TrEMBL record:
Pfam families the record matches: Thioredoxin_7 (PF13899)
Source taxon at top rank: Bacteria
Source lineage: Bacteria, Pseudomonadati, Verrucomicrobiota, Verrucomicrobiia, Verrucomicrobiales
Name of the protein in its database record: Thioredoxin family protein
Keyword Translocase: no
Length: 318
């Protein structure tokens, strides 16, 4: 092979490596290497779980944010960038990388794409986000806000190390709450902290153990509800269960009851039940959803009321 051919092959290989990353240069597929780099350079990990050739929001995030120099400059001193891709075209990833990505998807409980996890150098997540509109500068500012969660977490952990009993438990709870992670993620990566809370607060003065138990109970409720064979069975189960919960969890359950009424054409009951759900936790984020739900039900009710009249006109030849 002559020199021209050698140079051409080298250029092609370089292009293949670069183009394998949806966000362009500066990313890695190697999670283990990324952790080592983050540790040595005192950086955090930005993990992008993406479907680079089929996920519309993933592609938008790449095109609007990750490909731009303003993003790369804004994060280069803070994060090691890790792209974990789940493409339809598997040929762009080695079998080893595909296996690694499948394992990480399970480990981090990734349900949708794009999911952006911010993790420390050990791979412990401290914040989660996804697509955000506004371009690279705004996204970098968003990441800086999320990165502050780690500082809050670490300070709370440090405070807990100096405390005992309920004070220690409260500091640990504050650390977990600051990250706003899903319960499954907390259990997978901070299970030791959860156990420390229980040990430090055996009487559950923080209420954390009760909170965990109720979340587990709510998850079991959802699983059993999905096993219902029809609307009547689902409605009976919901009515039986709603008295076992309180606060926003009860609000969600009563909201489900309203949805069942709507799906079975009982529009008045649905509207009344939605109002009951709103009253349970009037300051919750779900209230806005219930308002929209009521509007949709009222529209469906009006449409159903008009339908017989329209049919009558057709029968009369009008």
């Amino acid at each position: 092979m002559n020199t021209r051919h050698i140079l051409a092959a080298a250029c092609a290989a370089t292009f293949a490596v670069t183009s394998a990353f949806a966000g362009g240069e500066g990313w890695t597929h190697d999670f283990a290497a990324a952790k080592k780099q983050a540790d040595s350079e005192k950086k955090d990990l930005l993990m992008d779980f993406t479907g680079s050739d089929w996920c519309g929001w993933c592609i938008k995030l790449n095109d609007e944010v990750f490909k731009h120099d303003a993003f790369k400059t804004g994060v280069k001193d803070k994060f090691v960038l890790v792209e974990l891709d789940y493409p339809e075209d598997k040929s762009k990833l080695s079998e080893e990388t595909q296996k690694q990505n499948e394992e990480l998807q399970g480990k981090y409980g990734i349900q949708g794409f794009p999911t952006i996890l911010l993790c420390d150098a050990e791979g412990k997540p401290f914040a989660k986000t996804g697509y955000q509109a506004g371009g690279p500068e705004k996204y970098v500012a968003h990441l800086d806000e999320l990165r502050a969660k780690k500082e809050t977490r670490d300070k709370a952990f440090a405070d807990a190390g100096k405390a005992e009993g309920t004070a220690k438990a409260k500091a640990l709870v504050a650390a977990l709450d600051a990250m706003e992670l899903e319960d499954e993620t907390v259990g997978a990566f901070y299970g030791d902290v959860v156990e420390q809370i229980k040990t430090a607060d055996p009487k559950d003065e923080t209420g954390y153990a009760k909170k965990l138990a109720m979340k587990q109970k709510f998850a079991e409720f959802g699983k059993k509800l999905n096993e219902s064979k029809n609307h009547d069975e689902a409605l009976a189960f919901v009515e039986k269960s709603e008295g076992e919960f309180e606060g926003e969890q009860k609000q969600q359950i009563v909201g489900i009851k309203a949805q069942i009424y709507a799906m079975t054409g009982k529009f008045d009951e649905a509207i009344k039940t939605a109002d009951e759900a709103k009253a349970i936790a009037p300051d919750s984020a779900m209230v806005g959803q219930l308002e929209n739900f009521k509007k949709n039900v009222e529209a469906a009710k009006a449409k159903a009321a008009a339908a017989p009249k329209e049919e009558g006109k057709e029968d009369a030849g009008e």
